Amino acid sequence: MKIGLMAAVTDAPDATLDDLINDAVKAEAEGFASLWMANIFGLDAISTLAMIGRETKTLQLGTAVTPTYPRHPTALAQQALTTAVACQNRFNLGIGLSHQVVIESMFGLSYDKPARHMREYLSVLMPLLAGETVQFSGTQYQVNQVKLTLPGQPRVPTLVAALGPLMLKIAGAMADGTITWMTGERTLDSHIIPHISASAEEAGRGAPRIVAGFPIVVTKAAEETRAAIDASLAIYGTLPSYRAMLDKEGLNGPGDLALVGDEGEVRNQLDRLRAIGVTDFTAAIAATNPEDGLRTREFLASEC
User: Fold this and answer.
1) Phi, psi (rounded to 5 degrees) for 38
2) Sorting pLDDT into bands at 50, 70 and 90, what band is 152?
3) Is 151 exposed, middle or buried (CB count within 10 Å of its CB: 0-12, 13-18, 19+)?
4) Each residue of 1-18: pLDDT tens digit?
5) In angstroms, how far is CA 86 from the centroid of its own chain?
6) CATH class label, 2-303
7) What are phi and psi of 148, to 5 degrees?
8) Cα separation of 190 and 188, whole Å?
9) Mean of per-residue pLDDT scores for the chain
10) pLDDT of res. 115
11) Contact 163, 188 (CB under 8 A)
């Protein structure tokens, strides 16, 4: 299981572009396998990772995730391929539906039939990323003889944020894997991994990547840290898709899901994720003080 970092979600939410670039260079030197960035309401994640890619050499870079609805799949494919060139083929495209409250209430777009949306989106996106000419006529997208040509035709591994059975079936059949958040070990083991793996096998694809993101803190103040995570990440416990995963795990909130404890306790939790088939662990360091933040990062680097 490869270990990476989630950029500027919990430990440095006000990070500048220069901060992010410098931190990525540091992460590469520390031996981390990857750096992931969410596309929310700040810096554009793909553009930022393209710039980080110019300053790093080995670090895998990925979005976790970029919402599909606001960007036409041809535009996203072109941006992803360009970023892959900038990153010397180290870019991983994580995409997702986002949430109804964002897409409808904030952006004013329809969130009707989200699984159909993702199926059509991938029907255009994946062949474009592979350098193929796309002719597609669907309910939401109509694309006529479009092909993108870039020097060297980079490959862009594509991961779909999928939690429900239908989305996992689509991700397994059409993409390279999934990327999860607010989804615990038991749910990954009994629900996420079996569903997407069965779909990938049925479609004749290789074993899917399972990229699992968790809040994490190495600390001696576990109870206080979990309470702080519950407060800082409270919004995730209210979004229906994440709430369903927390309920499936039997947890009250994000603090219960987080990997928290001393080095031995957190190592045991990482070992269990490795054992069930998580291929990539994405650490969202959620320390409440600089000392625990440094301790957590040093521990994670030692596990790489």
Assistant:
1) -80, 145
2) confident
3) exposed
4) 999 999 965 555 678 999
5) 20
6) alpha beta
7) -110, 130
8) 6
9) 96
10) 97
11) no
Residue 5 exposed, middle or buried by CB count within 10 Å (0-12, 13-18, 19+): buried
Mean pLDDT of 217-232: 97
| Contact assessment for residue 114 and residue 96, using Cβ atoms and an 8 Å cutoff | no
User: Residue 166 and residue 134: Cα distance in Å, rounded?
Assistant: 24
**Structural domain boundaries in the chain:** 2-303
The two three-digit tokens of residue 80, written as one number: 């992803």
Question: Which helix H or strand E contains 167, and what residues bound it?
Answer: helix 165-174
Name the residue among 223, 236, 228, 221 with its Cα closest to residue 184: 236
Place of tokens 């862009």: 156
**Contact between residue 239 and residue 101 where contact means Cβ atoms under 8 Å apart:** yes
Q: What is the mean pLDDT of residues 183-209?
A: 98
d(CA 33, CA 168): 25
Amino acid at 172: G
SS3 95: strand
Q: Indicate the residue type of 67.
A: P
